[in-house]
Amino acid sequence: MITSASSEVTREGRLLGDYVEDAARQRLWLQSWLSDKQFIEAGGRILYSIDIDIIKLYTAPNSAQSLRYTRIFRHDPDYLAIALASTVSSFIFFELSKRAPQVIFPPLEAELQDIYLALISRTDEEHKSIRGELDENLRKLQVALK
Q1: Average pLDDT of the chain?
Q2: What's the distance, Cα to Cα, between the start and end of the chain in Å?
Q3: How far apart are the C-alpha atoms of 102 and 104, rounded to whole Å?
Q4: Which of 53, 55, 119, 132 is the most buried (most CB within 10 A)?
């Protein structure tokens, strides 16, 4: 009984330590945002660059890569990180763009084009596969109706 309670306290202590460590990490990451805020308040202007990871965040918010960016606390469930990925990427594309200029630098533009072409290729492959299945099902249906 005491061993069970002791291990529970140890587990809870580790969990609390994880949350404190994650919160400290978030505070460090927010420092750049605070610096940007001061820069803007002093009359500075910021241009935001859309990175390929942001595009991936928008197009695949439930991917492992997206979850890596949007899981605030390591013990958060996936659905919270997915919701945050969807919300943040939608904000960047549809709200932030109304207030601040965004740019895509040429190397990123080329990478985006590669991703776009890969998506087209993958879609074409899936279309051919589905088309083959539909043709086979149609053939089976025609045989069955004879």
Answers
A1: 82
A2: 73
A3: 7
A4: 55
Report d(CA 136, CA 8) in Å as an integer.
58
- φ/ψ (deg, to 5) at 87: -65, -50
**Residue recorded with tokens 């919270």:** 80
What is the rounded CA–CA span in Å between residue 73 and residue 85?
14
Report helix, strand or coil for 76.
coil
Residue type, 44: G
- Render pLDDT for 61-84 as a digit per residue (tens, 0 to 9): 888 888 888 999 999 999 999 999
* pTM given for the model: 0.61
Residue 61 three-state SS? coil
pLDDT at 103: 67
Q: What is the pLDDT of residue 2?
A: 59
**What is the C-alpha R_g of the chain?**
24
Are 102 and 46 contacting, i.e. CB atoms less than 8 angstroms apart? Answer: no
